[in-house]
Amino acid sequence: MDYGKRLESLMFENNISPTQLSEMIECPPFQVSSRVHDGFSVKIKTIKKLASYFNVTSDYLIGISNENKNASDLSKVSTNSLLAELKRRVK
């Protein structure tokens, strides 16, 4: 799933309008619509704000990972699981 679809899905799941989201990330509402529909390039600062707002990882938001665990969720994951995932990603 690409960034635009993922953002649209998160907005729907959280019942957030483009106007509400635009206020949160400090941009005009038309830019939110562009980001959802046109695959608009996004600043890292904006990705950080969106990931924090929706409580997902930036990797999930931009489509690198399908796992949306945030940092607080990682405390619930075993050390062995984390090491196995790191090894998998390094290869």
Task: Reconstruct the topology from this structure.
Blueprint: H1 3-13, H2 18-25, H3 29-37, H4 44-54, H5 58-61, H6 71-74, H7 79-90
Protein architecture, described:
There is one protein chain. Helices cover 65% and strands 0% of the residues. With 91 residues, it is mostly helical.
What's the number of helices? 7
Q: Major β-sheet, in short?
A: none
**How many extended strands?**
0
Termini distance?
23 Å
Helix content: 55-70%
Give the low-pLDDT segments. Answer: none
Order of helices and strands: HHHHHHH
Give the percentage of residues in beta strands.
Answer: under 5%
Which structural class best describes the helix and strand composition?
mainly alpha
Report the principal-axis shape. elongated
User: What is Rg?
Assistant: 15 Å
The averaged pLDDT comes out at 76
Which features does this protein show?
65% helix; mainly alpha; single chain; 0% strand
